[in-house]
């Protein structure tokens, strides 16, 4: 729609297009309103659509298989995912400071999760991460404490004021997890669990969608499309490393090139996870710096108060003292690209 289009006219157009059997979706961007049309549009001529109103500036057909996730769907306007937390709204998006998400791989007990939350908050993180339900390769490995860990995450939220990000693995758990989490994570192994994607798409909390370890970028965006199509517009993509031929030195290969590629394909915010991306604590700081330099909107970093004793992913987890230093190092890159917030939230 042209800048300054009257609200009444936008409503009238949506109403008219509904009578054509289409589902109009009003998208309010920074500068203009875009009306997304989903339905049998193949038979429509863009010129015919243009005639519906003189306020229509441009009609664009999205040829890609992912429609709502595509950059064209918002006519190039990057989306923002705004997440209310006790410490205030946190915004994931291209025109905002890099949002750092930190915490242990798994929630182990109340003392460790509350202490870690306060440490990462004081260092400048805006979200606490921690798994209650863990996707483990071996059925004999620690599977997470489940429901009781959700209560511990709620306690850590209360004690630190940080937002909570935690993974959901099963459609049956979506409700109880989204009652506690501020952002619901779908892990790499579930990126194409379509039943789960539909279910998280039908609830209100934003969804963090990690890239499957062998997923192409198109498959990943189609997975995001499932969530968007189910009605949830708040999706954050997370690159967490992919599998290649050489895994002798790193657990995965963090695909930094995915950031500029995605910028040309999608409006969705992008997070990078150098912890799972490398699997080794020594490589995390440098790859975190690279992630900010390449333009990531957010970082996920595993932090554990005693990595040697961690029940999962200790080898890639930073001690809180090291995390403090790393945040200082990251601030140099963050400031250089104009995307660092210098205002850590202080709460008693
Ligand atoms: C995690 O973030 O704890 C996790 C299991 O990550 P991924 O799904 O990327 O392996
Ligand atoms: Mn982990």
Question: Topology, pairings included?
Answer:
Layout: H1 7-19, E1 23-28, E2 33-38, H2 46-50, E3 81-85, E4 88-92, E5 99-103, H3 110-123, E6 127-129, H4 147-160, E7 163-167, H5 174-180, E8 183-186, H6 194-201, E9 207-210, H7 217-229, E10 235-239, H8 258-263, E11 270-272, H9 274-278, H10 284-294, E12 298-302, H11 320-336
Parallel strand pairs: 5-6, 5-12, 6-7, 7-8, 8-9, 9-10, 10-11, 11-12
Antiparallel strand pairs: 1-2, 3-4
Helix pairs in contact: 3-4, 3-11, 6-7, 10-11
Structural write-up:
Helix 3 packs parallel to helix 11 (320-336), helix 6 (194-201) packs across helix 7 and helix 10 (284-294) packs parallel to helix 11. By secondary structure, the chain is of the alpha/beta class. The chain has an eight-stranded parallel β-barrel with strand order 5-6-7-8-9-10-11-12, surrounded by six helices. A two-stranded antiparallel sheet has the order 1-2. Strands 3-4 form a two-stranded antiparallel sheet. The model has no long low-confidence stretch (mean pLDDT 96). The termini are far apart. Helix 8 links the parallel strand 10 and strand 11. It has two domains: 7-61, no CATH class; 81-336, TIM Barrel (Alpha-Beta Barrel). It has helices at 7-19, 46-50, 110-123, 147-160, 174-180, 194-201, 217-229, 258-263, 274-278, 284-294, 320-336, and strands spanning 23-28, 33-38, 81-85, 88-92, 99-103, 127-129, 163-167, 183-186, 207-210, 235-239, 270-272, 298-302. Phosphoenolpyruvate binds at residues 105, 131, 135, 167, 187-189, 210, 240, 276.
């Amino acid at each position: 729609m042209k800048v300054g289009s009257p609200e009444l006219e936008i409503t009238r157009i949506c109403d008219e297009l509904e009578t054509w059997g289409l589902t109009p979706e009003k998208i309010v961007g920074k500068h203009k309103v875009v009306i997304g049309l989903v339905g049998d549009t193949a038979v429509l001529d863009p010129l015919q659509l243009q005639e519906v109103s003189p306020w229509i500036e441009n009609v664009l057909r999205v040829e890609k298989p992912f429609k709502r996730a595509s950059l064209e769907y918002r006519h190039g306007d990057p989306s923002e995912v705004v997440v209310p937390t006790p410490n205030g709204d946190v915004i994931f998006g291209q025109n905002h400071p890099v949002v750092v998400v930190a915490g242990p791989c798994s929630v182990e007990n109340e003392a460790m999760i509350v202490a870690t939350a306060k440490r990462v908050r004081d260092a400048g993180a805006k979200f606490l991460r921690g798994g209650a339900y863990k996707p483990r390769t071996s059925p004999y490995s620690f599977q997470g404490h489940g429901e009781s860990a959700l209560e511990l995450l709620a306690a850590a939220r209360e004690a630190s004021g940080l937002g909570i990000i935690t993974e959901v693995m099963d459609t049956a758990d979506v409700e109880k997890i989204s009652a506690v989490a501020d952002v619901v994570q779908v892990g790499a192994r579930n990126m194409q669990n379509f039943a789960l994607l539909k279910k998280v798409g039908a609830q209100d909390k934003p969804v963090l969608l990690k890239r499957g370890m062998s997923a192409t970028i198109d498959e990943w965006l189609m997975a995001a499309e499932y969530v968007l199509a189910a009605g949830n517009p708040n999706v954050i993509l997370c690159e967490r490393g992919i599998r290649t031929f050489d895994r002798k030195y790193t657990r995965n290969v963090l695909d930094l090139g995915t950031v500029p590629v995605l910028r040309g394909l999608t409006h969705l915010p992008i997070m990078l996870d150098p912890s799972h991306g490398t699997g080794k604590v020594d490589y995390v700081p440098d790859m975190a710096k690279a992630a900010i330099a390449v333009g990531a909107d957010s970082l996920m970093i595993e932090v554990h108060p005693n990595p040697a004793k961690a029940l999962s992913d200790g080898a890639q987890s930073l001690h809180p003292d090291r995390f403090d230093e790393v945040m200082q190092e990251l601030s140099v890159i963050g400031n250089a690209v104009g995307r660092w917030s210098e205002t850590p939230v202080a709460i008693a």
